[in-house]
Amino acid sequence: MIGVYDSGIGGLSVWKELIALMPEQSYVYVADSAHCPYGAKSPDYIIDRARAVVRFLISEGAEAVVVACNTATAAAISYLRSHFTIPFVGMEPAVKPAALASKTGVVGVLATANTFKGSLYRDTVMRYASGIRIVEEVGWGLVEAVEKGEVPSELIRQYVTEMTEQGADVIVLGCTHFPFLQEEIARVAGPSVRIINPAPAVARQTARVAASHAVSSAAAGAVPVREFFSTADPALLQRAAMAIDPALTPDHFHHINIQ
Ligand code: DGL
Questions:
Q1: How far is the CA of 226 from the centre of ligand 1 (A)?
Q2: I want to staple 172 with a disulfide (CB 3.0 to 4.6 A). Which of 33, 58, 109, 132 is the partner?
Q3: Cα–Cα distances in Å, from 70 out to 6, 76, 102, 172, 252?
Q4: Taking the alpha carbons of 138, 95, 198, 26 in that order, is the dihedral positive or negative?
């Protein structure tokens, strides 16, 4: 069984790719929505949440965990890898494919403040984006809007034009909540701008990790597990997940306090 977690519903954009690639796998998902957004919280706070959520996922049977949150990956993945024995897959800032795809040599990255502060992001930029200008845009307010099921057109217009006016022809969605806004981001950016969502690549990496660590999937003929927990009201998680997989029912969704 694979555990997946995010500060909220954003990680469903990764879960969607996971179930498409490995439908036979069992999944348990935690949306830490009571503590969302993580974007400007201290690294220690995010590590505390990561530790508690991962313990819970392991108690539910997770044999590997996908940290489906760029912000939690930036703050906590090193801690998790050194304190737990199961394998972890984190979000990669997709700067490398963006740099390769850009013709203008300008790449926009839309992420949270904490993701930009992380060494993972900085190292990736150093390694893969030499000669490329990166326009870093903090998507203030976007995560909160997605958690309410809203598409904040005015904020999106502001952030996207900030990047395109500086010449960006590729925009990286550096937060797992943002694929929920991809249609509007693409509409504002226009057809000449490519939008990169790293979720499919993260799903492929998870498949490699699951295979190399012999993560067990549902037995032949058995129905794979699909369980969802939210530390807040699970109503939006339920709506968003059922939009991805209509076979889910309300019984799959639970409220949980994770301390
Ligand atoms: N989905 C999270 C990410 O990928 C959102 C972080 C937040 O809660 O601010 O960064």
A1: 22
A2: 109
A3: 9, 10, 22, 12, 25
A4: negative
At 201-232, the pLDDT tens digits run 999 999 999 999 998 887 888 899 999 999 99
pLDDT tens digits along 140-189: 999 999 999 999 999 999 999 999 999 999 999 999 999 999 999 999 99
CB-ligand 1 contact for 38 (6 Å cutoff)? yes
Q: Residues 18-62: pLDDT tens digits?
A: 999 999 999 999 999 999 999 989 999 999 999 999 999 999 999
Between the CA of 128 and the centroid of ligand 1 the distance, in Å, is 23
